[in-house]
Amino acid sequence: MKNCEAMRRIFISTVATLFIGILNVEAQEGLPDFTLENLGKNRISIGWQNQYGEGLKQVNVQVSYDSLRNFGTVFEPLSPQLPQNGYLNNKDYAGKVYYRLFYVLNGGAYYFTASKAVPDQEDAEGGSVSKRVPIVRERMITVRTYMNVVARITPSDFAKFRDSVNANTKDTLQAVGQDEMLIKFFKPDDPNLPSEYVGTNQEGYVEIKLPNAKIRNYKIIFNDSKGNYLFTIKRVADTDMVLDKTNFLHAGWYTFELYDGDKLVENKKVLLQNDF
Questions:
Q1: In this structure, are 99 and 177 located in the same domain?
Q2: Minimal CA–CA distance to 24: which of 39, 35, 40, 13?
Q3: DSSP secondary structure, the chain, as one string
Q4: Domain span at 168
Q5: Are 110 and 182 in a shared domain?
Q6: Residue 98 dihedral angles phi and psi, to the nearest 5°
Q7: Residue 204: φ, ψ to 5°
Q8: What is the longest distance spanned by two Cα atoms in the chain?
Q9: Could you tell me if 230 and 168 lie in one domain?
């Protein structure tokens, strides 16, 4: 009987969480927008809509006592692809806390929503809660190229990943942040390897991301798939540049040569999707 009662409570809690999430997202826009509501008695409802369909790979609900940093993940849905989703957090926080969502799309693009604050929670009798519950930040290491996220893994898994890279490849890993590693492929001149700097964004536009572009002398030459010349950007002065699709003749593969001064940095190709 105790097991049956426990299962019944879990079922009711799960249904309530999903129901509250659905109610919250009825009148909202899709990600990165999300709803946040204080239901009282330490119950905070978070809801969001997924306009990406199967393209949404991961969603994390994160909480912090600070609006800008020290966020910890408190929930990750098993089915992020659902069109509507939500979570009911009943942890006993004290004082003002902030919520945000971290989400990842197929292809590796990842985003943080703006943080939102909720009023101080109150206990069942209406008095203020004095206990300050610590928010444990889940440490994850992001491995990425300049264009895409390769993986988000725990420190122990990263140690195995790093050892495998060092032992089995000639690729290199470079720390670019406290928990962010940049992977550099050994053969940047191989057109069959993905570019570290040129790719397509989620809207299908060709996007160029170059570190230190403002102080370097980057030039890029585009050709069609047969090697016929298209155009040259003589000076890439922005660290993040998006090219209009009208610069290209049609959908398909295009090759490019990226130079830093007279030095060839990459000789690769990029695929422009057939949506125009």
A1: no
A2: 35
A3: -HHHHHHHHHHHHHHHHHHHHHHHTTTS-STT--EEEEEETTEEEEEEE-SSGGGEEEEEEEEESSSSS--EEEE--S-TTSSEEEEEE-----S-EEEEEEEEETTS-EEEPPPEEEPPPB-TTSPBP-----------EEEE-SS-EEEEE-HHHHHHHHHHHHHH-S-EEEEEETTEEEEE-S-TT-TTSPPSSEEE-TTS-EEEE-TTGGGS-EEEEEEETT--EEEEES----SEEEE-GGGSSSSEEEEEEEEETTEEEEEEEEEEPS--
A4: 139-186
A5: no
A6: -125, 145
A7: 90, 10
A8: 77
A9: no
Same domain, 82 and 150: no
How far is the C-alpha of 28 from the C-alpha of 134, rounded, in Å?
31
The residue type found at 216 is: R
- Distance, CA of 24 to CA of 47 (rounded, Å): 5
Peptide bond into 32 cis (omega under 30): yes
Per-residue pLDDT of the chain (276 residues; tens, 9 = 90+): 445 554 554 444 444 444 444 444 445 678 999 999 888 887 889 999 999 998 898 898 988 888 887 788 888 888 889 999 999 998 877 778 899 998 988 877 778 899 998 865 444 334 444 444 555 556 778 888 766 677 777 787 888 888 888 887 778 888 877 678 888 776 655 666 778 889 888 778 899 998 888 888 999 999 988 888 999 999 998 889 999 888 888 888 899 999 988 888 888 888 887 664
Q: Taking the complete model, does pTM exceed 0.90, yes or no?
A: no
Rounded CA-CA distance 194/157 in Å is 24
180-184 and 141-144 strand pairing: parallel
The total number of structural domains in the chain stands at 3
